[in-house]
């Protein structure tokens, strides 16, 4: 007897599990059972698993019976005429959905030529094996699987036209590429998904060679002239939002230019861009520290009525300012109300981003890299026909990654650019690269995609032929302007007196155990000591009982709260975090006695 499990729960047994599975599938194909319910007979454990839970990935396949597909030419004609829909084919049992579990039992044919009597299913389209973003990778079937996956992920982070109505939207942390283009090497998914309405990259001339070592470890080199002509320029948008909150006792926030008697008033310079209503004007150029929306709030912690009378005028400053390290231009100001009926002010900031050292770029094949150097055009290598590449890519990125499609796309893009047409690079069904090579040769170029190159500095000819072609390159949202962070001294936390955390809060850069080891191995003892005294403090200790003593500011003398005045007190230099530990131990009733010894 085989056990039956529904979504992992035991529900009964069956004498003939094969017959159960066959009749179950038959009923599902007739449309009597929901198409998304899967069944599978595990012969090793002699169990029947039925799954109907949410979140399973299911995919459609054509049903094969006795070596022939159930989908006929008649069906295709009816679909083309609009008499049948895709879902009708599912209801008729022509197409069925399988999940990963049920696919274990299935034998899926790639296309009609591969069919044998053993096959149970066939791909609707070989391209359907991969997902939407992956199907946008040209010649994807020539790629190593990991890189194909990375290429799919990278496309999701690329800059383009994310929404046509971006000018009237208030989105957090978005980018718009100024001159996006349609790729020369497309797949059928570019047409099906109307990619021309929201492209997210640009066609560039790419040369594969090393240059001064500035493109080591996946870095790329950019031609300065390409940037000056507008390559990969984008705009970064970010909103600043605030609302007039209501508090108990009828108190309310007020959006206005704060008065000088307000607690926490900044300087006159910080409020210089605000208009009479306390809100900044559009097209104002701003930098860190500038106030965008002036706001005052009622005082906090009102305990008694008399205190309320005293502090009714002393409101506190709660304006919205530009964070550390940010700059931009005020793009758009919106005044509205939120769901509670409070006044809501949204100010959108924009910042033009020109490619710089450290910005991240990628091809569609997972070959990502940051800009290592922006090269003067005069120093760039150039081809015999005078073409200066936009990007120089390192050859070491190819052998270990095995991204053949990266190389094929360059050749295809070059052919497409010269013959003035789009190349079909649909995975499994692309144009034959051998034909592309012949076409390239007929256009007067070497059929292997290489060209003679010259050194831009000396004018000498390179000994090796350089592989060069056209390629669709994407600029990713990871820009150095959003990530660059450095600090000397700055704000510290109230509790531990250690530097604050995070770039936005102007935080410190943490030195971890491994970084410590590098200093130790270099013998940089003084640097190591300096790095680890971010919370250095001087605390008086009683030499008799070994506990923290007290320093009296007025009397200018120290005493021990336990031993009194008749003991000697010494100042000890230690980390404030250690002093916190001692306090923590005391609160647990543990006596942390410090035995003091002279330093020298």
Helix/strand layout:
Layout: E1 2-6, E2 9-14, H1 17-29, E3 38-42, E4 47-51, E5 58-65, E6 68-69, H2 73-81, H3 86-91, E7 95-99, H4 100-103, E8 108-109, E9 121-122, H5 145-156, E10 174-177, E11 185-186, H6 188-192, E12 202-208, E13 220-223, H7 224-228, E14 234-243, E15 254-255, E16 285-287, E17 291-293, E18 295-297, H8 305-310, E19 316-317, E20 320-321, E21 327-337, E22 343-353, E23 360-362, E24 368-375, E25 382-383, E26 391-393, H9 404-419, E27 423-424, H10 433-442, E28 450-451, E29 453-454, E30 466-475, H11 480-483, H12 513-522, H13 525-531, E31 536-542, E32 550-552, E33 557-559, E34 569-575, H14 576-587
Structure commentary:
By secondary structure, this protein is α+β, with helices and mostly antiparallel strands. The chain folds into five domains: 2-124, Hypothetical Protein Ta0175, Chain: A, domain 2; 140-233 and 357-472, Beta Barrel (Dna-directed Rna Polymerase Ii 140kd Polypeptide, Chain: B, Domain 6); 235-353, OB fold (Dihydrolipoamide Acetyltransferase, E2P) (Beta Barrel); 485-525, DCoH-like; 536-587, RNA polymerase alpha subunit dimerisation domain (DCoH-like, Alpha-Beta Complex). 20% of the residues lie in helices and 26% in strands. The protein has 14 helices and 34 strands. The strands form ten sheets. A six-stranded mixed barrel has the order 12-26-13-24-23-30. Strands 5, 6, 7, 8 and 9 form a five-stranded mixed β-sheet that branches. The protein has a five-stranded antiparallel β-sheet with strand order 10-14-22-21-16, with no helix packed on it. β5 and β6 form a beta hairpin. α9 packs across α10.
């Amino acid at each position: 007897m085989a056990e039956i499990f529904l979504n992992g729960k035991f529900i009964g047994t069956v004498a003939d599990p094969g017959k159960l599975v066959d009749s179950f599938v038959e009923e599902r194909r007739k449309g009597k059972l929901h198409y998304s319910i899967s069944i599978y007979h595990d012969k090793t454990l002699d169990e029947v698993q039925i799954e109907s839970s949410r979140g399973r990935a299911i995919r459609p396949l054509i049903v094969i019976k006795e070596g022939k597909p159930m989908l006929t030419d008649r069906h295709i004609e009816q679909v083309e005429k609009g008499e049948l829909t895709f879902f009708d084919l599912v209801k008729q049992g022509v197409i069925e959905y399988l999940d990963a579990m049920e696919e274990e039992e299935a034998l899926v044919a790639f296309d009609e030529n591969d069919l044998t009597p053993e096959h149970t299913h066939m791909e609707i389209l070989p391209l359907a094996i991969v997902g939407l973003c992956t199907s946008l990778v040209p010649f994807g079937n020539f790629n190593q699987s990991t890189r194909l996956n990375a290429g799919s992920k990278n496309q999701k982070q690329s800059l383009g036209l994310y929404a046509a109505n971006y000018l009237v939207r208030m989105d957090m942390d978005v980018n718009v590429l100024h001159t996006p283009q349609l790729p020369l090497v497309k797949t059928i998914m570019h047409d099906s998904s109307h990619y021309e309405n929201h492209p997210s990259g640009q066609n560039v001339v790419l040369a594969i060679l090393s240059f001064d070592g500035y493109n080591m470890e996946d870095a790329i080199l950019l031609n300065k002239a390409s940037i000056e002509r507008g390559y990969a320029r984008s705009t970064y948008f970010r909103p600043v939002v605030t609302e007039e909150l209501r508090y108990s006792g009828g108190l309310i926030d007020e959006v206005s230019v704060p008065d000088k008697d307000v607690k926490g008033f900044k300087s006159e310079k910080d409020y210089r861009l605000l208009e009479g209503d306390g809100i900044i004007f559009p097209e104002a150029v701003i930098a860190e520290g500038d106030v965008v929306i002036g706001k005052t709030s009622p005082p906090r912690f009102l305990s008694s009525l008399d205190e309320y009378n005293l502090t009714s005028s002393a409101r506190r400053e709660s304006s919205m300012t530009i964070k550390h390290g940010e700059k931009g231009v005020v793009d758009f100001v919106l005044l509205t109300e939120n769901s509670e009926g409070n006044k809501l002010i949204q100010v959108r900031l924009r910042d033009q981003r020109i490619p710089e050292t450290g910005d991240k770029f990628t091809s569609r094949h997972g070959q990502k890299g940051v800009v290592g150097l922006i090269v003067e055009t005069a120093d760039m290598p150039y081809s015999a026909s005078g073409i200066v590449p936009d990007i120089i890519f390192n050859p070491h990125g190819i052998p270990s990654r095995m991204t053949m499609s990266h190389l094929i796309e360059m050749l295809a893009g070059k052919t497409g650019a010269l013959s003035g047409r789009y190349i079909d690079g649909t995975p499994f069904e692309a144009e034959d690269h051998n034909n592309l090579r012949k076409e390239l040769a007929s256009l007067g170029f070497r059929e292997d995609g290489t060209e003679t190159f010259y050194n831009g500095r000396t004018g000498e000819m390179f000994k090796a032929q350089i592989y060069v072609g056209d390629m669709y390159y994407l600029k990713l949202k990871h820009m150095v302007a959003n990530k660059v962070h450095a600090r000397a001294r700055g704000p510290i936390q109230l509790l531990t007196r250690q530097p604050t955390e995070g770039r936005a809060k102007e935080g410190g850069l943490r030195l971890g155990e491994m970084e410590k080891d590098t200093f130790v191995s270099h013998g940089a003892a003084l640097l190591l000591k300096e790095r680890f005294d971010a919370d250095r403090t001087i605390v008086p200790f009683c030499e008799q009982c070994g506990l923290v003593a007290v320093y009296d500011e007025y009397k200018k003398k120290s005493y021990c709260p336990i031993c009194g005045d008749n003991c000697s007190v010494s100042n000890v230099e230690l980390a404030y975090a250690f002093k916190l530990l001692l306090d923590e131990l005391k609160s647990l009733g543990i006596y942390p006695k410090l035995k003091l010894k002279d330093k020298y």
